[in-house]
Amino acid sequence: MKVIPYGRQNITQEDVDAVVHTLTSEFLTQGPKVLEFEEKFARYIDSRYAVAVANGTAALHLCALALGVDSHSKVITSPITFSASANCVRYCGGEVVFADIDRSTVLLDLEKVQILLEKSPMGTYQGIIPVDFAGYPVNLEAFRKLADAYGLWIIEDACHAPGGSFIDSKGKKQFCGNGTYADLAIFSFHPVKHIACGEGGMITTNNKNLYDKLLLLRTHGITKDPNLMQENQGGWYYEMIDLGYNYRLTDIQCALGISQLTRAPQGLLRRQEIARRYDEAFSNSEIQCIIPEEGVNHAYHLYVIRIDKRKTLYDALRQNGIYAQVHYVPVHNMPYYQKLGYEKEIMPLAQAYYEKCISLPMYPTLSDEEQSFVITKVLENAF
Ligand SMILES: *Cc1c(COP(=O)(O)O)cnc(C)c1O
User: Fold this and answer.
1) What whole-number distance in Å separates Cα of residue 82 and Cα of residue 55?
2) Binning pLDDT at 50, 70 and 90, where does residue 345 land?
3) Ligand 1: which atom is nearest the Cα of residue 81?
4) Which atom of ligand 1 has the smallest separation from the CA of 190?
5) Helices (H), ranges, 101-241
6) 160 CB under 6 A from ligand 1?
7) Which tens digit of pLDDT belongs to each residue from 247-290?
8) Which of 301, 273, 308, 303 has its CA nearest to residue 291?
9) Domains (ranges, CATH) in the chain?
10) Which of 88, 102, 186 has the alpha carbon at shortest distance from 142?
11) pLDDT above 90: residue 226
């Protein structure tokens, strides 16, 4: 039986050629492909700067470090995300505070965040990490207003949403990760995401200061910049001026990323086409779809539906070779967070969402026939 996964990469001969070409070139890492990928990605996302890193989790870790998260920090994020969105705060010893989601968009609810901020003294919180969950762009203009009122920074977890956008109050189209409203944004190039590098990640920003910090932290905190060094003992000399990491992305991976990026716009259009077909197929049923608001250009990393008999449907699909998935078990329900003392029932909307959600196959190479098969099996088994 042919398996239809919930997401998968699309590797073409051009991708293979690009990787092979880099493999036989002078640089396997720290060569010209890194900068080329960064520049092209920044252009796609419409941000000023981009920093390629080892994976999306490393991107989050570096963002938290660059913004100074430490054991005194409290940071707010959504419970409906991949654990890494929260974990980056823990890597730096900070405390994660979850706020509940909006029922219809499944995004971090601005009002819930505001309530948290209002009931604590000024200075309690340092930042917010909103997530463009499933590819639905967060209205970061609204979050920026709130963040400014409380002196907070914003890291946008845009892993699900390269190419997605929303229209701000001035009527301007704002691409996810473009750095207009968030201080930093991060992306992942894991094979289930829009652009595959095997492993890979990117940080985007419009802030030169943060950009310089990230470059340093990505490579051990090592510099050869005469303006940053205390002395210079000769051509060989460098200084480690901060505690950084090796979070570099290789030229091999960047070559793949550059090649993949050329097909990102058409991949996004195909995802949206698939979504429209699902929307239509389920419109006269009890199946609850997430319909984007006016002006929202949804990037559809995931196509999520909510139904009462989720487990029955999951098992039935599985028996037919359709490997749907659940995104996500609320982060605060994970045993690690439970051990830290988080209570399971504190976020009723996240819990209610989790009990009904299931992500259907969504990737550009999903054929019309495969999608028809998925739709038939969903309608047969959802009730
Ligand atoms: C995939 C993902 C990450 C982590 O990216 P990796 O490249 O797998 O480390 C972080 N946040 C979200 C929302 C993701 O989907």
Assistant:
1) 13
2) confident
3) 13
4) 7
5) 110-118, 140-149, 208-218
6) yes
7) 999 999 999 999 999 999 999 999 999 999 999 999 999 999 99
8) 303
9) 4-262 (3.40.640.10), 264-381 (3.90.1150.10)
10) 102
11) yes
Provide the pLDDT for residue 383: 84
Please work out whether the CB of residue 157 comes within 6 Å of at least one atom of ligand 1: yes
Residue position matching structure tokens 């968030």: 182
- In tens, the pLDDT along 117-149 reads 999 999 999 999 999 999 999 999 999 999 999
Judge if the beta carbon of residue 84 lies within 6 A of ligand 1: yes
Residue type, 81: T
Report the largest interatomic distance among the alpha carbons of the chain, rounded to a whole angstrom.
74
The set of residues, in sequence order, having a beta carbon less than 8 Å from that of 265 and lying 6+ positions away, is 163
Closest CA to 353 of 155, 109, 146: 109
From ligand 1's centre to the CA of 228, what distance in Å? Answer: 33
Q: Cα(300) to centroid of ligand 1, in Å?
A: 15
Q: Whose CA is nearest to atom 7 of ligand 1?
A: 56
- Mean pLDDT (whole number) for 163-168: 98
Separation between Cα atoms, residue 38 and residue 32, nearest integer Å:
10
pLDDT at 344 over 90: no
> Which one, of 300, 266, 290, 286, lies nearest residue 382 by Cα?
286
Ligand 1 mean position to 201 CA, how many Å?
8
Q: Provide the sign of the torsion angle of the four alpha carbons 342, 131, 10, 59, taken in this order.
A: negative
Dist CA 70 CA 126 (whole Å): 10
Q: Are 208 and 49 in contact (CB under 8 A)?
A: yes
Q: Report the C-alpha gap between 161 and 175 in whole angstroms.
A: 9
Residue type, 108: L
Residue 55 CB–ligand 1 contact under 6 Å: yes
Ligand 1 mutation pick, 87, 190, 304, max ligand atoms within 8 A of CB: 190
Tell me which DSSP letter residue 46 carries.
T
Going from the Cα of 341 to the center of ligand 1, the distance in angstroms, rounded, reads: 24
The residue with tokens 């000399």 is: 237
- Does the reported pTM lie above 0.85? yes
Extract the tokens encoding 343.
């209570």
Q: How confident is the model at residue 194 (pLDDT cuts 50, 70, 90)?
A: very high
